[in-house]
């Protein structure tokens, strides 16, 4: 199940225009497709990421992955959920610097909640702006489609 598949499934579970909540996404991740212990290659295939990206996230401290006695990475559900979070934040434009700061704060505990909240609120504002810009782009695209005699879906 790639992160796109997770998103598609989450959108399919949405009722009307209600926003998708994290519980819906976590339920998709609990669907038995995540083994207790997965290799880097298995997680890469599952989430449609490169093993290099997964190792990079680990190297820069965005995700912690336990190791087997052999030294091989063994991704658990928590690590896979973290990676899904990271990929959603990256897709929405969050910088590695901001993600690193967020993870550092999260690992420090409850005392950092106000700073994490501020970081997420600022990022949400950026996403909202991107959505507005995309709506303008969609309107322009729809105009061109109808200009050429096509019909636009909803």
TrEMBL record:
Residues of the HTH merR-type domain: 37-105
Record bears the keyword Transport: no
Entry's Gene Ontology molecular function annotations: DNA binding; DNA-binding transcription factor activity
Keywords: DNA-binding
Keyword Protein transport: no
PANTHER family xrefs: HTH-TYPE TRANSCRIPTIONAL REGULATOR ADHR, REDOX-CYCLING DRUG-SENSING TRANSCRIPTIONAL ACTIVATOR SOXR
Name the UniProt record assigns to this protein: MerR family transcriptional regulator
Lineage: Bacteria, Bacillati, Actinomycetota, Actinomycetes, Micrococcales
């Amino acid at each position: 199940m790639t992160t796109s598949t997770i998103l598609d499934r989450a959108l399919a579970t949405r009722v009307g225009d209600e926003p998708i909540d994290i519980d819906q996404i976590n339920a998709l991740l609990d669907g038995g497709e995540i083994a207790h212990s997965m290799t880097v290659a298995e997680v890469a295939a599952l989430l449609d990421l490169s093993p290099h990206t997964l190792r990079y996230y680990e190297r820069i401290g965005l995700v912690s992955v336990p190791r087997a006695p052999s030294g091989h990475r063994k991704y658990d559900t928590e690590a896979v959920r973290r990676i899904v979070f990271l990929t959603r934040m990256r897709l929405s434009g969050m910088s590695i610097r901001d993600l690193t700061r967020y993870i550092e704060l999260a690992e420090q505990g409850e005392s950092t909640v106000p700073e994490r909240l501020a970081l997420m609120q600022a990022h949400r504002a950026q996403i909202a702006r991107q959505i507005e810009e995309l709506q303008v782009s969609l309107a322009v695209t729809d105009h061109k489609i109808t200009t050429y005699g096509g019909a636009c879906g909803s």
